[in-house]
From TrEMBL:
PANTHER family: ARSENATE REDUCTASE. This is Arsenate reductase ArsC. Residues 94-219 form the Phosphotyrosine protein phosphatase I domain. CDD domains: LMWP_ArsC. The keyword Transmembrane does not apply. SUPFAM superfamilies: Phosphotyrosine protein phosphatases I. The lineage of its organism: Bacteria, Bacillati, Actinomycetota, Actinomycetes, Pseudonocardiales. Gene3D superfamilies: 3.40.50.2300, Corynebacterium glutamicum thioredoxin-dependent arsenate reductase, N-terminal domain. Keywords: Arsenical resistance.
Amino acid sequence: MPAPPPSHHDTEDYRPTEDQVALLLDHAAAELRQQFRGGVVDEGTIHHVVSDTYREPAATARVHTHLTTLATRYARERLADVAKHQGVPVPSAPEVLFVCVHNAGRSQMAAALLHHHAQGKVTVRSAGSAPADTVNPAVVEVMNELGLDLSQEFPKKLTTDAVEAADVVITMGCGDACPVFPGKRYLDWELADPAGKGVDAVRPIRDDIDQRVRALLADLVPEAAR
C-alpha cells in the first residue's frame, strides 16, 4: 500500500500538484481495495470511481483542504452501491437516496437531517441530476443553527448504482432525471427551492424537510423515531 501523503494544516488551502494527486488517489484506492477485497469490486472499477469522485469536485472547488478525504468517503459510498447492485450481502439497514437538481440545498438538508435523527439505523445518500459547484451558503448556515455542519460537504452526481442500491428514492424537483427501477419506493416531495434565497427564507424550507424526514423515519424504523 502506498504511504499516505504528508499532512497539512487544517486552515491551509492545500492545492496538491498532479504528482501529489496521483499519490493521494493511489493511497485512497489501496485503502478501498482492502475494504472491497476478495473480488467484491474489481480494481479497475475502484480506480475509476476514486479518480472520478475526486476530479469532478476538484475542477471547481474553491478550497481543496480535506477534498481527498471527502472524495474517498464518497467513493466508498459509490463502491458500496456497486457491490449491493452486484448482489453482495450488505447490512440490513434501509437505504434512502435524496435527489434534487443541484444537490446543493434540499437534498443536502434532507440527508443531514435523516442521518442525524436515524443515529445509524438508516443509510443515507444524496445526489443531484446536475450538481452545482458548492453547497448553498444559506443552507450551510441554517443547518449550522441546528448543530449540523455541511461546510465540508460537496454536491455529488446522481448515478444509476445509487438508485439501484436504494430502498427509498425521494426526489425534489428533478423531474424525470431519476431512473426508475422496479421494487423501489419512490416519493416526490414538493418543496420550495432555496437557490437564491436568504437565510430567513431558507429556514422554513429546512423545517418543512425536517418534519417530512421525521415522518419518513417513523415509517422506516419506528423505534428510531421515538
